[in-house]
Amino acid sequence: MGSEEKVMGIPQLIQFQTLVTTGSLFLAIVAVRFLSQEMGYDSLIITFLLVALALGLLVCSADFFIEGAKGLARRVGLPEVVIGLTVVSIGTSLPEIVFTTSSAAAGLGDLAISGILGSVLVQITLIMGIVVVNKGLKIRESWLKRDGLIMLLAVLILTFFLLTGLTLERWESGILVLLYIVYITWLLLHRKVIQLEEEDHKEEVAIHDSNWNNAASINMVIFGLAFAVFAADQLVIYSRLLAIELNVPQAIIGVTATGIGTSLPELTIALMAAKKSQGVAIGTLIGSNITDPLLSIGLAGLVKPLAIEPEGFELIVYIIIPFTILGCIAALLMMRTSYEFKKWEGYTLILLYLLFIITLEAYNRSWITF
User: Fold this and answer.
1) How far apart are CA 14 and CA 232, in angstroms?
2) Distances in Å between the alpha carbon of 272 and those of 88, 206, 218, 288, 353?
3) Higher confidence at residue 273 or residue 189?
4) Nearest to 50 by CA among 68, 33, 69
5) pLDDT > 90: what percent of the chain?
6) Residue 333: is its pLDDT beyond 80?
7) Residues whose CB is less than 8 angstroms from the CB of residue 189 and which lie 6 or more positions away in sequence, other chains included
8) pLDDT number for residue 148
9) Quick one: fold of 10-364?
10) Dihedral angle over CA of 66, 72, 73, 74, nearest 10
11) 153: pLDDT confidence band, cut at 50, 70 and 90?
12) Is the per-residue pLDDT at 15 higher than 90?
């Protein structure tokens, strides 16, 4: 694949569509901010526009980062399947990583916590459901037993830390990051064994990639990360402002708008994989849902302990956390039935997410109380 393609460098990178889109979104954010400040515009529409542009930049910069990281990983000889479980999973979780870290630095614990839990819930219900409805999938037992159970365990450990003292302390965050490092190290040490397990499913682990040289790949990683950090900072600022202007809790903004927005890379890659595979789409989402509750929020908690604020306590503890755990268990049980994901099960997962949104709205309108 890569060896038969022309090696591309900096000249081709400058014309790369993803770079053009990323740069355009960056300039659009700068322009809107400048014009709104110079002309004195301060409206809800402007805030919505800046949130949408920041989400778009976050997603595109993550895609740019992934492209470069995959190129570097392939050049050091990592098998495709390990690249998928490590580099791609981390890359697709880059929006969550930089968003939660920026939220933590700004002292917005509710936004960081709800953003991560919202991302996990969106991916395991809505996005998984869309992928399955688009194409029913067969599940490989090795993916489910290894990565599926680790995903559920990661969510349960994070929940335990959050509910004990209602704060994710630095030492607890350190444990989460350490657990993720152990998981990645195990994958790398057993990459040959994993590759042998995949020999009968070679088409399922192929990750399409352009053949970029080292210089281009390194620039993608650097600029992708830089744009992502900028976008996350803007998203935190305007998500908080949006919550104030709409008079809704920050946790609702985090679990819906940012949760869905930061999960767009997973949706794109999962849908593309589903057209050519039986398991990589599921593996992409599960891998990301291991990264988010361990690495993403762990790094944020190392920056600053994340506390569940009193105004967000009921929403996070009684609605967001239970729905996230329920979504993970429901998805794993559906995968376990004959190791096949049927389309009606996909619709069920989508309905579960819609039920979550209805519950959020009912709580926000005080139709239900705790």
Assistant:
1) 24
2) 13, 11, 25, 16, 22
3) 189
4) 33
5) 33
6) yes
7) none
8) 87
9) A middle domain of Talin 1 (1.20.1420)
10) 110
11) very high
12) no
This model's pTM is above 0.85 = no
- Per-residue HEC secondary structure of the chain comes to CCCCCCCECHHHHHCCHHHHHHHHHHHHHHHHHHHHHHHCCCCHHHHHHHHHHHHHHHHHHHHHHHHHHHHHHHHCCCCHHHHHHHHHHHHHCHHHHHHHHHHHHCCCHHHHHHHHHHHHHHHHHHHHHHHHHHCCEECCHHHHHHHHHHHHHHHHHHHHHHHCCCEECHHHHHHHHHHHHHHHHHHHHCHHHHHHHCHHHHHHCCCCCCCECHHHHHHHHHHHHHHHHHHHHHHHHHHHHHHHHHCCCHHHHHHHHHHHHCCHHHHHHHHHHHCCCCCHHHHHHHHHHHHHHHHHHHHHHHHCCEECCHHHHHHHHHHHHHHHHHHHHHHHHHHHHHHEECHHHHHHHHHHHHHHHHHHHHHHCCCCCC
**Could you state, in order of their start, the residue ranges of all structural domains in the chain?**
10-364
Residue type at 194 in one-letter notation: I
Contact between 182 and 307 under an 8 Å Cβ cutoff? The reply is: no
Per the CB < 8 A criterion, the answer to whether 72 and 224 are in contact is: no
Q: How far apart (Å, rounded) are the C-alpha atoms in residues 120 and 100?
A: 13
211: Cα within 13 Å, side-chain hemisphere? 7
Cβ pair 262, 119 in contact under 8 A:
yes
- Is residue 348 a contact partner of residue 326, using CB atoms and an 8 Å limit? no
pLDDT digits (tens, 9 = 90+) for 255-295: 887 888 778 777 777 776 666 555 556 667 788 899 999 99
Q: How far is CA 260 from CA 43, 59, 116, 152, 310, in A?
A: 23, 11, 10, 20, 24
